[in-house]
Design brief:
2 copies of one chain form a homodimer.
Chain A (H helix, E strand, L loop, with lengths): L3 H13 L16 E3 L2 E9 L10 H18 L3 E12 L5 H17 L2 E10 L4 E9 L15 E5 L4 H9 L9 H9 L8 H7 L2 E4 L4 H12 L2 E5 L7 H8 L3 H10 L6 E5 L4 H11 L3 E8 L3 E6 L2 E2 L14
Parallel strand pairs in A: 3-4, 8-11
Antiparallel strand pairs in A: 1-2, 2-5, 3-5, 6-9, 6-10, 7-9, 8-10, 11-12
Chain lengths: 323, 323
């Protein structure tokens, strides 16, 4: 089960895609459905898989919203509403529900969301938080498919922090000065809502990064029927990630950063002719984006370091908790 | 935790209702939201709470759809789409996913639904199936609130079968000739989709029955600011439930049937002047409805038997599995 990402992808394609008989569902091949001018997405987070049992309950609630906000942003949509299904462990203190609701309230204000409906049940198992989120479509709603040879590949924010944060929480890396920052990036991803208008206007193809830059670029390329080439030196790194990388053999460290999941940044393909406009729009939105590579004819993904492809692992899921 | 229903109600009211800042959410006081002409509802079913671990996986999938279809029908809406979130136990055979998808496909055909999106994750805990369903609103979208003194109270189908089915599965009742029928009613509730146009046209207030007739009538009455009076002799019973009742002290047996959960029938209030039209519309829809009582000024619910109120338990949840 270390390759849960691929298992999941196969299952969805083989069993569930035939059930998505309406074009609005985009054959489940995308991160969201487009129904009229509503963009609709659903993502669940599970204790022990997407967050740790002792993560603060406020951040669990906020993360559940943010992984869905990230999907909307990657489709160029503005958040409107969400529905919430909670399977709440019988053994969790009831007082934690207050913290959970406070976390929701906080991010509702931050992202101009409101709760549309919900269902709360108890469970003997881990906490499961399932969110369905509705957004207002932008000028366009880019799919994963749509990237063409000649396009440039962009990414928002910084790469690898989420995975380093999880590793820090698990005691797998020692980075005392960066612990709080990295753990914060794992527990509270920053959905790039401010970039949604830019994505809607400029992206030929887009998706958010949950399974790792390399694995997700591979998916975008596959959906578009093209190849993606990423320049490892251009991968945007936080100061914390740069410090971590500086202590490692560069090729292995860069491959690890490109493999970590939980980034929730946006990957998108756009025309080189629009590079200046994209950079300016991102500056005005106050969210960083950088060009990290290009789209070519072919298939698959290569992350180049010093002119040669890095050896990539099976994907970011290997770095998730448990499986 | 035997009164989970009330706990849940309190939690939703106190913590989550303030998050539902948009009128579309109906302050979470209803079974669905109304967004434009879309009716949106969400309900999850959890292994060990809403179904048994060894229930056939096809019926688990179909029940997850049907509890949501039932909510739409009670709001007078026609099914359109659903989104599905699965937390799939690592220990379940992968082949069960095929059966799960087959169950979905079956009920999609039956109820003219299609899958709009989904998310599948693994879990170390029980199977959790969360569904968000979208329907097309009818002429009106009745809420739980809206019943007025003088209204008559109607219910569809038959009462108590779901709870008897669960009791049969758990070996708590012995009814060999009715076992298959009752277990079928528990595992595969019959959502009254055919009644949706009637509900939209005639109901002053409506909801589906998941926590038991008495407990849910109490909720409808509370939302409407009125009292509900149910005539126990008028409660529609299947032949199987009638046989079970015949072996019991009538007052206790009727109170139990009014307390069982998992009926997924529709309870609604309507004008006495419309009784003939309602009966005729139900006949044409091929779904049985009967008048079981009336709405009065006051508060609470009474189930009358031989002119006196039955002693009611704390609610249907006591009959759910586990809690």
């Amino acid at each position: 089960m270390t390759e849960r990402g691929r298992d999941e992808f196969d299952v969805i394609a083989r069993l569930f895609a035939p059930l998505a008989t309406d074009p609005a569902a985009r054959a489940l091949a995308d991160d969201a459905a487009l129904l009229g001018d509503l963009v609709i997405t659903t993502d669940a987070i599970v204790e022990g898989v997407h967050f740790l049992a002792n993560d603060p309950i406020e951040t669990v609630a906020r993360k559940a919203l943010r992984v869905n906000l990230s999907d909307l942003a990657a489709k160029g949509a503005a958040p409107l509403y969400y529905l919430l299904t909670l399977a709440w462990p019988a053994g969790r203190r009831a007082g934690q529900l207050d913290g959970f609701a406070a976390g929701l309230a906080h991010d509702q204000r931050t992202f101009a969301l409101s709760l549309l409906g919900g269902d709360t049940t108890s469970t003997d198992g881990p906490l499961v938080v399932a969110v369905t989120m509705l957004g207002k479509a932008g000028l366009a709603t880019p799919a994963r498919a749509g990237a063409a040879p000649g396009d440039e590949l962009w990414v928002s924010g910084s790469i690898g922090d989420g995975g380093l944060g999880l590793a820090a929480l698990r005691g797998e890396i020692f980075a005392p000065e960066d612990f709080d920052y990295l753990v914060g990036r794992y527990r509270l991803p920053e959905p790039r809502v401010a970039l949604a208008p830019l994505i809607a206007a400029e992206a030929h193809a887009a998706m958010d990064l949950s399974d790792g830059l390399a694995a997700d670029a591979r998916k975008l390329a596959a959906a578009s029927g093209v190849a993606a080439e990423i320049d490892a030196e251009r991968m945007p790194l936080s100061d914390a990630a740069a410090r971590w990388l500086a202590q490692r053999e560069p090729a292995k460290g860069l491959a690890a950063l490109a493999g970590f999941g939980d980034d929730y940044e946006i990957l998108f393909a756009a025309s080189p002719a629009r590079a200046g406009a994209i950079a300016e729009a991102a500056r005005q939105a106050g969210a960083p984006v950088v060009r990290i590579g290009k789209i070519k004819a072919g298939h698959g993904v290569e992350v180049l370091h010093a002119g040669a492809p890095l050896a990539l692992g099976p994907g970011g899921y290997a770095h998730r908790i448990g499986r």
